[in-house]
Please model this.
Amino acid sequence: MIAIEHGVEIVMALANSLAKPDRMPAEFVPLTDSLHRILREDVVADSDSPRFDKAIRDGFAVRFEDLSTIPSELQVVAESRAGHSVSGIQVLPSTCCEIMTGAALPEGANAVVMVEHTERLSPGRVRILRGVRDGEGLLRKGAEVCEGERILETGKKIQIPDIGTLASVGKAQVAVSRRPRVAILATGDELVEVSQIPDAAGIRNSNSYTLFAQVTEAGAEPAMLGIARDTLEDLREKIHIGLQQDILLVSGGVSMGKYDFVEDVFAEFGVKVLFDQVAMKPGKPTVFGHCGETFVFGLPGNPVSTMVAFQMFVRPLILHLLKAGDSGSGMLEAQLDAATKRDPARTAVVPALVHFAEGGYRIRTAPWKGSSDLAGLSRANALVVIPQGEGMLGAGERVQFLTME
Ligand code: AMP
Ligand code: MG
Model:
């Protein structure tokens, strides 16, 4: 039995040795399809932003020096509107130029007075009711970004603001990592599909769906292989298909039961197993190995165990393959609200309730009936890690957790 951290090291070491530089080549996708993909180019501004000295108020472009006495009257000599050139317009002493938000500042002006602080006397004259500071009401050329400046770095997960940034520098197509394809296979004679009503001995297949969601959230592309029955023939047929993908996830059939054949079939296909027991509760019988270039996981069948094992081992692998800059575990830190019993042999990962109070996260374990209790996990909002050890972990101790929101 190996520690969780050691398991993660083994997964990452294999990822480094198996994943050749072009394993997940960059591909171009339309900007509209790029949300949450992993960027594979440094993005550089193709021009200054703003591209010219720009009004950020509707009003009058003035020389602030002319407004030392208030109110003050100025002659309106021209108009500057968004999208139109200002060449030839000049703001001389005691004159001003009517200007709209987003329009270029004409030569000679150095501030913009909001229209709300003016009174129009005639088409050619305006009374200014408030003074302005040098540079007020405008943004200077390049104030936000300079031409050639790197504004997004390779490895970044593209977020909503980044979509706008990419649009603003002309990226109609964006270079992103190809998504690893992840095959998902459920196993068990007792399983029926979601739309079916199980008989007295049956249960619905939920693992395929939580795994589908977890794979998608991690940025990979799930491929559903359905349910394999607990027979060598059926497992062979479906595992064979799964081995064609980048990653194969099999849930169930990896414990000590008489009909847990998954590891036998892995062996028939020559899967090289690197570990098959982790000091983790739930999730002890987690199997990891590879078959040629394909990463292979046998995840424990109980629904919460499957989810926890994915989060601990599969998600970091996917982020690594994607060349994501942040391939961390997603763990956050909180203070334990109440003393919690430790397990002497295994690190526990259990449903918990976390909230933010007095500048930090506070956490306590949630009522839960064990590794098949999905509803218990749905009532919680986090999974807390209680490191293995004797006795109790005291209230106030710092612990790691994963948010489930
Ligand atoms: P196993 O590891 O195959 O012995 O499965 C352990 C427990 O998890 C059993 O109670 C199974 O019925 C349950 N289980 C296995 N696969 C699934 C699944 N796909 N969806 C829901 N429960 C499952
Ligand atoms: Mg089973």
